[in-house]
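Below is a filled-in request sheet from our internal design queue. Each sheet records the structural input a requester submitted and the sequence that came back. We keep these sheets so that new team members can see what a complete request looks like end to end.

REQUESTER: design group, bay 2
PRIORITY: normal
MODE: inverse folding
CHAIN LENGTH: 397
BACKBONE (tokenized):
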């Protein structure tokens, strides 16, 4: 789960990280008062969406101005004007994709005098199974470009879980970034606080881009992006409360209500599968036969008729879906029960695209019989590759 920049900054501030003073506003009328509560004389008006690259992004609506989602204001009136221009508009960045994201919240914060922009992140490194600190002197808005063209400028430091974060980690990072004097101490403290926040709140990613050296020599967190492990959210009600459902894919949100593991993808073949491993294999084999999956969907081991129906509704609500492949292994579940669930779901939801069903496991003959006798236009398949071949053929001709 991701949260907004202003929420991330509040959280990191509670762990002792240096951030600017700021106010979040939902309505343009609130902007002037909010800006007035800050010091000035320079304000930064920042669109809050769950995507980076806002500064270099552009709005779809011309009246929102040319200059992207992070803008400077020299007066509280100008801050209000900028907030009015951005609220309700669609911001497109390299991370949102061409559809962009609607801006529903604006963060107004004090402007900082920037000497240097650095990059700092903590993440779970799957290769070493450790938390890594990633740092670069080339922070700011072009970090992707840095990673692509000069990867040697991105440094990585692995933290041994047995010791946890140690001050020498911080010193190493500080020296590699060319920090001096009191800045080194600040970095050692900052990284200690970030590491504590990261582990205590079960984060998957913590990215500060930029971390700035101000003209007065002090460090400050100027942008913050946090991602949390969804499987650990149950023990962080404070983080759950920060969830902004308007930022999430509506289909994924609906699926989570029914405890379905669903991820929307860009392809044309909707998949309904039980078990994450089988779901992965199904996606792979669809690709092997020359098509692309429209989603990952694991209905789980104990899929009920209700769950199957809901899964169908979610799959068919995706207008990119040109065909559906149901691939179920009846282990604990019985194939006849699943067949009944599928038939009931098709009857309730309706079916405008080809449907291939592959069943295997307990009571498979009975399951197949139920499908064959249903009178519905369902294509039966005997095994995984047969199912993939049939659905791709039905969709692509
Ligand atoms: P994004 O990464 O989504 O583009 P950032 O918050 O990193 O958004 O802002 C983009 C750039 O705007 C920063 O790299 C920095 O140069 C500038 N900026 C952001 N916030 C401030 C601020 N409070 N004061 C001065 N400059 C800022
Ligand atoms: Mg940034």
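RETURNED SEQUENCE:
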């Amino acid at each position: 789960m991701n949260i907004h920049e202003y929420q991330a900054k509040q959280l990191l501030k509670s762990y002792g990280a240096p951030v600017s003073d700021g106010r979040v506003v939902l309505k343009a009328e609130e902007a002037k008062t909010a800006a007035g509560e800050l010091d000035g004389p320079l304000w930064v008006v920042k669109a809050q969406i769950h995507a980076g690259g806002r500064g270099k992004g552009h709005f779809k609506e011309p009246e929102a101005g040319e200059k992207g989602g992070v803008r400077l204001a020299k007066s509280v009136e100008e801050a209000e004007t900028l907030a009015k221009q951005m609220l309700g508009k669609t911001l497109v960045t390299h991370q949102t994709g061409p559809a962009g994201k609607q801006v529903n919240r604006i963060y107004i914060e004090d402007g900082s005098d920037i000497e240097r922009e650095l990059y700092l992140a903590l993440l779970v490194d799957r290769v070493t199974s450790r938390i890594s600190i990633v740092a670069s002197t080339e922070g700011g808005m072009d970090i992707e470009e840095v990673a692509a063209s000069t990867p040697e400028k991105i440094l990585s430091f692995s933290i041994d879980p047995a010791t946890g974060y140690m001050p020498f980690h911080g010193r190493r990072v500080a020296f590699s970034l060319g920090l001096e004097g009191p800045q080194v101490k600040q970095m050692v403290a900052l990284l200690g606080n970030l590491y504590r926040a990261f582990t205590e709140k079960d984060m998957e990613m913590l990215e500060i881009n930029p971390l700035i050296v101000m003209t007065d020599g002090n460090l400050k967190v100027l942008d913050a992006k946090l991602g949390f492990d969804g499987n650990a959210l149950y023990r962080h009600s404070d983080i759950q409360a920060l969830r902004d459902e308007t930022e999430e894919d509506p289909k994924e949100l609906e699926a989570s209500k029914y405890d379905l593991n669903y991820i929307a993808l860009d392809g044309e073949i909707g998949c309904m599968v039980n078990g994450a491993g089988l779901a992965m294999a199904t996606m792979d084999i669809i690709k092997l036969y020359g098509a692309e999956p429209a989603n990952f969907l694991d209905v789980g081991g104990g899929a009920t008729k209700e769950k199957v129906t809901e899964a169908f509704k979610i799959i068919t609500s995706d207008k990119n879906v040109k065909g559906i492949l149901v691939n179920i292994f009846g282990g604990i579940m019985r194939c006849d029960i699943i067949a009944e669930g599928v038939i009931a779901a098709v009857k309730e939801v309706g079916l405008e695209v080809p449907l291939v069903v592959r069943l295997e496991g307990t009571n498979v003959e009975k399951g197949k019989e139920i499908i064959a006798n249903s009178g519905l236009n369902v294509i039966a398949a005997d095994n995984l590759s047969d199912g993939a071949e049939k659905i791709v053929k039905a969709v692509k001709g």
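SHEET NOTES:
- The mean pLDDT is 93.
- Residues 52, 209, 223 surround magnesium ion (ligand 2) (CB under 6 Å).
FILED BY: M.R.
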